[in-house]
Amino acid sequence: MYVSAITGDHADVAELVAWCDTNPGRMGVYDAEAGDALGLGGPAGLPQYGPDDLERMIAEQRVDAVVITTPDYTHAGFVTRAQAAGVDVVVEKPLATTAGQCRDIIDSVAATGRDLTMTFNYRYAPRNSTLREVIASGAIGTPTSVHFEWVLDTVHGADYFRRWHRQRENSGSLLIHKAAHHFDLVNWWLDDVPARVFASAGLQFYGAANAAARGLGERPERGTGAGRDPWALDLTRDPRLKALYLDAEHHDGYLRDRDVFGPGIDIYDNMSLVVDYRSGARMSYSLNAHSPWEGYTVAVNGTEGRAELTVVERGAVLIGEDGEVVLDASANPDGPGVTTSRPEGERLVVQRHWGAAEGIPVPAGIGGHGGGDAILLMDVFRRDLRLSDDPLGRAAGYLDGVRAVAVGIAANESLASGRAVTMEELGLAPAV
Ligand SMILES: NC(=O)c1ccc[n+]([C@@H]2O[C@H](COP(=O)([O-])OP(=O)(O)OC[C@H]3O[C@@H](n4cnc5c(N)ncnc54)[C@H](O)[C@@H]3O)[C@@H](O)[C@H]2O)c1
C-alpha cells in the first residue's frame, strides 16, 4: 500500500530512498514493483539494508521518515531507534505488543520530540466515520455501553493461523494484532479511554489438538502442493504470493502457508472481553476467527437512544466445483452463495427513545478497508493540504496507538491471571 502510494498518487511529495528488511528476496520484489511503477524499465535499484543497519541507512540515505510494516513485535524497537536517529515514523497497527514496548515509545516521543503517525485505516472507512458523527452529534445522548461482535471468515480468519501471527510472541494474539483496530474504533467513537479489562479466550477450532479431537486425520505441513483442500493456501497459485514468499524462503526459511491445523499455534480463535471505560461506559466484545461469513455488528447504547451498525464484508465462502475456494460468490449469480439473506453491505440505524428507527446514509468509499485506505494515505502524505482540522479527528497519534493496544495487552494479562486487569497495573497511566 505504501510503496504504490509513494510511487503513484503521492509520488510528487514522497520519494522511496531505501529498503530495510531481513529478506533480500522480498526487497527485490518490491524494488522491481517500484521500478515498474516509476516507469524505469527495470528495478528501481534502491539500496537494501538489514535491520541492524537501520541507523546507517537513515544517515547514508538522508532519510526523512521511516514507514514500519514489519511483524508486530518489532514495531517498538524500530520506532525508538528511528526516532533516536532523528527521523519521523509512520507505523502500522498494532503500535506494540507489550506494556514495556508502549512505555519505551512514550519515552522515546518525549525524549526526541519526533512525530509518530499511527495508520488506523478503519477510522477512515465512511461507515465508521459516519457512526462517529452520529455519536458526536449527541443523537443517542451520552454513550453508556457498547456491544461489539467481529467475525473473521474461514479465508481471512484462517490466514492468521498460517503465518507468523499464529504465535503470541509475534502478534500478541489476535486480541492485539487484529482487535487493535476494533478497540481503537471504540475509543474514538466514544471519545473515551479504556480503564479495566476482563478476558476469556481459547483455541477451539484451529490447531493440531482440535483437529485431532475432530478426527481430521493426517494433515500436510503446508498448503503449497497439498492439493484440493479449502484450508490450504497454495502459494504457486498466486504469482505475487509465490514471488514474495515461496521464492524468498531460501533466505530465511519463513513459511507463509503452514497448515492451520498444524502444531505450534498458541493464539486464540474465540475471544470474549468485558471492557470498562474511564467515563463509566462499558463494552462487551467478541472476536471469532472461523466464521462462515465476515463482518461486524456494533451497537452503542446512549442516554437518549441507540445506534446500530451492521457490516457484511463477505457474505459467504464457498467451494467451487473444482474444489477450490470461491471468494467472490457473485461471480456465479445462479450459485447458492448469492442470497438475499446476507447481502454484502452496511446498515447504520439510529433510534431515539420514543421514536422510530431511522436509517442513516453512509457515503460510498473507494478502495481497500471500506474506502479507508485512500483517505488515510492522504493524511499520511498530504496532511498539510487539509483546509482546517479534521472535525472527525481521524489522524491518529502514538497515544491512540497505545490506548488501542492497551486493551489487548490487558486482555492477555487477564487471560494469564484469570482476573480483571486495570490500566494502572500495566504502568501505562497517565497515557491510558
Ligand atoms: N492496517 C492494516 O489493515 C494492515 C493490513 C496488513 C498488515 N498490517 C500490518 O503490517 C505489518 C506487516 O504485515 P504483513 O502482512 O505485511 O506481514 P509480512 O509477513 O507479509 O511482511 C513483514 C515483512 O517484515 C520483514 N521482517 C520480518 N522480521 C523482520 C525484522 N526483524 N526486521 C525487519 N524486517 C523484518 C519480512 O521479511 C517481511 O518482508 C503488521 O504489523 C501488520 O499488522 C496492517
What does this structure look like?
With 432 residues, the chain is of the alpha/beta class. The protein has two domains: 2-120, NAD(P)-binding Rossmann-like Domain (Rossmann fold); 122-205 and 265-422, Dihydrodipicolinate Reductase, domain 2 (2-Layer Sandwich). It has 15 helices and 16 strands. The protein has helices at residues 2-7, 24-37, 54-60, 75-84, 99-112, 126-136, 156-159, 168-171, 174-177, 179-190, 208-213, 239-246, 249-252, 368-382, 398-417, and strands spanning 19-20, 48-49, 65-68, 88-92, 116-119, 143-153, 194-202, 270-277, 282-291, 294-302, 305-314, 318-319, 325-326, 345-352, 357-359, 421-422. The strands form four sheets. A nine-stranded mixed beta sheet has the order 15-14-11-10-6-9-8-7-16. A three-stranded parallel beta sheet has the order 3-4-5. The chain has a two-stranded parallel sheet with strand order 1-2. α5 links the parallel β4 (88-92) and β5 (116-119). α4 (75-84) runs parallel beside α5 (99-112), α6 (126-136) runs parallel beside α10 (179-190) and α10 packs across α15. The longest helix is centred in the C-terminal third of the chain and has 20 residues, at 398-417. It is globular, with a radius of gyration of 22 Å. It starts with a helix and ends in a 10-residue tail after the last strand. The mean pLDDT is 93.
